[in-house]
Amino acid sequence: MPRSLTGRRHMFIPGPTHIPEQVLNAVHIATEDQRSPDLPSVTVPLYEKVKKIFKTKSGTVFIYPGSGTGAWESCITNTLSPGDKVLIYRFGTFSMLWSDMFQRLGLDVNIVDVPWGTGTPAEDVERVLTADKAHDYKVVCVTQNETATGVTSDVLSVRQAMNAAKHPALLFVDGVSSIASIDFRMDEWGVDCAISGSQKGFMLPAGMAIMAVSPKALEANKSAKLPRCYYSWEDMLKTNKDGYYPYTPQIPMLRALGVAVDMLLEEGLDNVFARHHRIAEGVRRAVKEGWKLSLCAKEEKWESDTVSAICVPEGKDARKVIAAAYSKYHMSLGAGLHEVAGKVFRIGHLGDLNELQVASALAGSEMAMRDSGIDIEPGSGVAVATEYWRKSLHNV
Question: pTM higher than 0.90 for the full model?
Answer without folding.
Answer: yes
